[in-house]
Amino acid sequence: MKPLLQNLAEMTAHRDHLRLEVSVLSTLLHQGRDLRVRALELFRDGRGGPAMLRPRSWSEGGQIVSSRHEAADDPQALELAQLPELAKCIAAGARSATRASAEEHVLWLPVWLTDQAHACLEVSQPRPFKRHQRDVITAVFMVYQNYQSLLDYSERDALTGLLNRKTFDEQFARKSAGAQNAAAPGAQPVSDWLAVVDIDHFKQVNDRFGHLYGDEVLILVANRLRSQFRSQDRIFRFGGEEFVVLLRASTLEQARQALDRLRAAIAGHEFPQVGQITVSIGFAAAHGGAPVEILGRADQALYHAKEHGRDQVCYYDDLLASGALGRQVEHSEVDLF
Predict the structure, then answer these.
(1) What's the whole-number average pLDDT of the chain?
(2) Which of 153, 220, 254, 259 is the most exposed place for a label (fewest CB within 10 A)?
(3) Which residues contact 295 (CB under 8 A, 6 or more apart)?
(4) Which residues are 318's β-sheet partners?
(5) What processes in GO biological process is this protein linked to (predicted)?
(6) Would you say 322 and 290 are in contact if contact means Cβ atoms under 8 Å apart?
C-alpha cells in the first residue's frame, strides 16, 4: 500500500487540473499489468453541436502523455454517441459504465462537477477486472474527483459560477507562454482574441432596483455568455459588472461577429423587473505582448465604446489605426509601469 499512498499524496499536491490528471493516470497505471488509461475530455462541437469527446491524456510506453491540440481541433475527437455505453451512462447521470469483449475490458468513470460530466477516466485491460482491483481504482478515482471539485470551486466566482480573475491570470499567463514557446520563426500567431464585456449603467440598476436584482442581472448575463460561446472559449467574471472572454476564432471577422451576437442577445433580452440592459465590449488580439498589455488594449477599446455611445463592440487595432487611441495609448503605456 505504500506506493499507492505515496501516489495519492503526490496527486493531491498539484494545483493544476492537467497535472492532477496526469498524476491520477500515473497512479491508476500501477494498478494492474497490461493496464491502459486515458483521460477523455467531453465538449460540444460548436454552439448546439453534438456531444464530443477526445483523449486529452493517455498512457503510452509506460508513461503518460498529453495532447497538444485544443479540443475542437483535435483529430482524435469523436462523437460521444460512438461509445454508446458511456453515452448512456452520462445521460442517466450514472457513476460508471463498462464494456466487455474477448479482447478488452473497459471501465469508464465520468468526472462530475456541478451536475455535469466534464471529463471521464477510461481504464482498460485484456482480462476482467478483479473485485479488489476495481475497488482500488474506484477509490483512487473518488479522491481525484473530490480534489477536482475543490480545485474547481477555488477557480470560480461564487455568484455566477464563471471562472474568476485569479484563474484568468494563471490560465492566460500559461497560455501566452505556451504560444510563445510553440511559435515557429515567421509563423502566423494563433487567432485568439481577448474581449472585455461591461454592463452599461449597472450602478443605476443597483441603485434603482436593489442589489438582489443586480445580482440576478449578473447571473442572467453570465448565462447568456455561456450560451453564446463554445466549449473551447473561456469566460471569466472579473468582479462587479465586468466579464472577460478568451475567444478562439479563425478570423477577426468571426470574432467580431461572435461578440456582436452577444451584444445583440443581451440587448434583446427582457430582464425581470429591470427590463432591457446593454453591454459595451472592447477586444484585442490575444498575442503580441505580455498579458497585462493585451488586457490593457482590450480595456482601452472598452473605454472608447463606453465614451462613444455604449452598446457597441470596438476593436483595439481599428481604433489605433484611426487615431482614436493615439493619446490614450501613450498614457496607458506609462500607467502599466
Answers:
(1) 88
(2) 153
(3) 172, 194, 196, 244
(4) none
(5) cell adhesion involved in single-species biofilm formation; negative regulation of bacterial-type flagellum-dependent cell motility
(6) no
Which alpha helices (H) appear in 238-315, and where do they start and end?
252-267, 291-307
How many C-beta neighbours within 10 Å does residue 35 have?
17
Give helix 2-11 / helix 131-155 axis angle, nearest 10°: 20
User: What pLDDT is stored for residue 72 in this prediction?
Assistant: 80
Contact 225, 243 (CB under 8 A): yes
Alpha carbons 312 and 259: distance in angstroms, whole number: 9
**Catalytic positions, written as ranges:** 241
The region that residue 279 occupies, defined by phi over 0 for left and psi between -120 and 50 for alpha, beta otherwise, is: beta
DSSP state of 183: P
In sequence order, the β-bridge partners of residue 44 are 51
181-221 pLDDT, tens digit per residue, is 444 344 444 479 999 999 999 999 999 999 999 999 999 99
The three-state secondary structure class of 30 is coil
Could you tell me which residue, 277 or 334, shows the higher pLDDT? Answer: 277
First-last CA distance in the chain: 53
Share of the chain above pLDDT 90, in %: 70
**Which of 145, 161, 102, 152 has its CA nearest to residue 127?**
102
CA 318, 320, 321, 327 torsion: positive or negative?
A: positive
Residue found under cell 466566482? 157
CB contact set of 214 (below 8 Å; sequence gap of 6+): 202, 205, 206
Residue identified by cell 458511456 is 86
| Residue 287 one-letter amino acid | H
- Work out the widest C-alpha separation in the chain, in whole angstroms: 72
HSE, CB side, 13 Å, CA atoms: give it for residue 139: 11
Q: What are phi and psi of 77, to 5 degrees?
A: -70, 145
- Give the chain's domains with CATH numbers: 2-155 (3.30.450.40), 165-336 (3.30.70.270)
Q: How confident is the model at residue 94 (pLDDT cuts 50, 70, 90)?
A: very high
Tell me the three cell numbers of residue 181: 514557446
User: If you write DSSP's letter for every residue of 248-267 in order, what string do you get?
Assistant: E-SSHHHHHHHHHHHHHHHH
